Amino acid sequence: MLPTSFLKIEWRGWFENYIHNSMKLLEGKTALVTGASKGIGRKIAEVFAQHGANVAFTYLSSVEKGQALEQELQAFGTKVKGYRSDASQFAEAEKLIEDIVSEFGTIDVVVNNAGVTKDGLLMRMTEENWDDVMNVNVKSVFNVTKAASKVMMKNRKGSFINMSSVVGVQGNAGQANYAASKAGIIGFSKSVARELGSRNIRTNVIAPGFIRTEMTEVLDPKVVAGWEANIPLKRAGEAEEVANACLFLASDLSSYVNGQVLPVDGGML
Ligand SMILES: NC(=O)c1ccc[n+]([C@@H]2O[C@H](COP(=O)([O-])OP(=O)(O)OC[C@H]3O[C@@H](n4cnc5c(N)ncnc54)[C@H](OP(=O)(O)O)[C@@H]3O)[C@@H](O)[C@H]2O)c1
Question: What is the pLDDT of residue 188?
């Protein structure tokens, strides 16, 4: 006979799956997720497809992973397509939006997630490392938002979700370029929220804390343990926990949320 604790766990898992599968929060919506070949972006694409969205996503250097994701997401039964596109290039972002509109018909949700780090103390930071991080992290958000906003303005609806970081709010030694880029995303998003709100287009920011992905797995385990000790929840976050916050901001559940920064950080900020 099975112990009662086992039955409770099984029942809970079944119930959670049932709720997840029966509530399709993004049915009928088309979403673009930039930088979805791995990490947080990949999970967002998966959760969106699971919730009934048609999903366009981008990748850049991880071509095989991007192609594999396109195959995997077919299982959810919605339209899915991956594009190799450099979000930091203005012309490529414009072409991307044109291609998505001709393939999917429209765009309702954009998650500007693509990002990189090139860490180093200010004294050693090169101009190239500054420029690369600013171009990929902030200029990309301008590029994609500008192109996609034309589509949303015609539709008189839309939701932009821009991926910042707790570091953009509180700073971090060794990440002056990254922190500046992530703070820039907040200022940009709050401005766009004021400009486009009258067209029923919402713009919000997510500020993840320390999330377990390829971006953070390169960190020294001692540094990681130090960070975790300072997080009120005493653990790193998972990509799915960020994706679930994106799901809320992408869906109509957040229809009156605009111009906000939502930390997903275990209480760090
Ligand atoms: N992990 C964390 O703890 C954490 C915390 C706060 C904020 N964030 C932010 O969350 C986002 C995702 O982070 P992550 O940890 O999932 O990072 P990740 O695992 O390194 O993934 C980054 C993604 O961005 C894509 N990308 C990079 N440059 C690009 C470009 N120019 N054009 C298009 N795509 C590009 C990469 O694609 P390719 O591999 O194909 O080049 C990859 O899919 C980033 O904006 C990051 O700053 C992460």
Answer: 99
Residue 90 CB contacts under 8 Å (≥ 6 apart), including other chains: 139, 143
Q: 178: annotated binding-site residue? A: yes
Active site residues: 178
- Domains of the chain are 27-210+237-264 (3.40.50.720)
Percent of the chain with pLDDT over 90: 88
- pLDDT for 31-52, tens place per residue? 999 999 999 999 999 999 999 9
User: 107 a known binding residue?
Assistant: no
- The predicted pLDDT at position 23 comes to 86
Query: What is the distance between the alpha carbons of residues 144 and 95, in angstroms, rounded to a whole number?
Result: 10
The protein residue with its alpha carbon nearest to ligand 1, atom 29, reads 114
Side-by-side strand order, sheet with 109-112: 80-84, 54-59, 30-33, 109-112, 158-163, 201-208, 261-264
